[in-house]
Inverse folding.
């Protein structure tokens, strides 16, 4: 019996080529640029999320030295920080298609990536049911020396290489001096209200 | 009817098989005895001692994304109540600083990065989880900010007592998976390994609790 018939060799070559093809589509390429649509915007702009008809808008940002849940009891002390808290008040409108859950992060020019602060029940960012809109707050603890070009990034959790979008909201801190001023004039305390759902008009 | 040749062949074969039988049996017996001796003397693998440094508290350990300064340990005893049996926890206090110069990302202290090493051949005890910033579970430590005070808890027996406890600190490494196996060659924090062992003298604290 002949061991290496032309067909066997062809199948082998096919497998090698297939391996090469999968290397072209490593997650690195998928995650960073190629099939992500980046939606840029500023405070007050309603931005489209993943083409699902849902929108996200940042209505206001507040800087504070301590934060406290509005539902906190008398025994709960405000949560302090060595840095500064940034409370981002948002407004989402849900379209007919269910949007993926979002991973919000803050980025700054210095390279820092900030994750949402823990320990606050009311701090979150999500979408209501279809036909409704929701307003709420998400709180981040940030380093006051790295706040230039603070940007809110909303990225959906991707399991597959599907066409997806990322929202980037410029929080309006173009220079170090403005960042410093924001930190200096931060409110002594910020109360995090629970999110409110209403009918989308 | 067998031919003479076949009979002679059979005789020769018989002789050949039986000629070295005793030697073969001896060799097999020797192998069995040797393996039993190796097993009885503690296995083939060479026992290596601890390969990471052993420090005495207060000690600072740089471990991957974090820098931990272990300060003190407490054995917190909860006496028996009407509803609960007596229990005890070993709580280790430390300061943690995010020194993630690779990703500059906020991250939480992972309780799995700490092990209680009882010694005497007993298994290491995994922690019940870590908390920071006023005992908050999952507190995000921001890169670039000063250290936060944290603690990690281990469950121990209700009568546990020790003059010195050893806490193993693990560290993550910023590296990528093997890209020749088809994984992305982008590095990330993973692959825990031991960084150091810290010796602390625990104080006994009784937690009266609320009734």
């Amino acid at each position: 019996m002949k061991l290496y018939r032309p067909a066997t060799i062809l199948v082998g070559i096919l497998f090698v080529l297939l391996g090469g093809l999968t290397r072209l589509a490593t997650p690195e390429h998928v995650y960073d640029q190629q099939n992500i649509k980046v939606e840029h915007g500023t405070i007050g702009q309603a931005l489209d999320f993943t083409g699902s008809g849902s929108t996200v808008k940042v209505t206001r940002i507040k800087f504070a030295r301590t934060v406290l849940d509005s539902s906190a009891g008398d025994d709960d002390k405000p949560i302090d920080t060595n840095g500064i808290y940034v409370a981002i008040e948002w407004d989402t409108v849900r379209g007919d298609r269910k949007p993926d859950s979002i991973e919000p992060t803050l980025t700054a020019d210095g390279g820092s990536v900030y994750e949402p602060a823990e320990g606050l029940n009311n701090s979150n960012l999500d979408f209501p049911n279809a036909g409704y809109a929701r307003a709420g707050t998400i709180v981040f603890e940030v380093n006051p020396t790295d706040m230039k070009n603070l940007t809110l990034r909303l990225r959906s959790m991707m399991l597959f290489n599907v066409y997806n979008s990322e929202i980037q909201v410029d929080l309006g801190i173009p220079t170090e001096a403005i960042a410093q001023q924001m930190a200096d004039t931060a409110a002594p305390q910020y109360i995090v209200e629970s999110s409110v759902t209403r009918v989308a008009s | 009817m067998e031919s003479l040749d076949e009979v002679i062949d059979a005789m020769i074969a018989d002789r050949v098989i039986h000629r070295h039988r005793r030697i073969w049996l001896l060799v097999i017996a020797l192998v069995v005895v040797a393996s039993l001796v190796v097993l009885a003397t503690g296995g083939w693998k060479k026992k290596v001692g601890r390969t990471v440094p052993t420090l005495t508290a207060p000690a600072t350990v740089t471990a991957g994304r974090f820098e931990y300064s272990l300060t003190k340990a407490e054995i917190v005893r909860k006496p028996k109540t009407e509803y609960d049996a007596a229990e005890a926890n070993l709580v280790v206090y430390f300061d943690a600083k995010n020194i993630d110069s690779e990703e500059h990302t906020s991250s939480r202290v992972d309780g799995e990065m700490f092990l209680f090493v009882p010694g005497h051949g007993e298994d290491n005890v995994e922690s019940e989880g870590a908390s920071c910033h006023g005992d908050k579970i999952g507190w995000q430590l921001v890169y670039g900010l000063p250290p936060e005070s944290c603690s990690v808890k281990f469950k121990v027996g209700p009568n546990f007592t020790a003059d010195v406890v050893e806490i193993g600190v693990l560290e993550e490494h910023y590296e990528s998976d093997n890209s020749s196996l088809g994984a992305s060659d982008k590095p990330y924090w993973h692959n825990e390994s031991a960084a150091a062992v810290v010796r602390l003298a625990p104080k006994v604290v009784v937690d009266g609790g609320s009734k």
The first strand of chain B starts at residue 54 and ends at 56. Chain B has a mean pLDDT of 87.
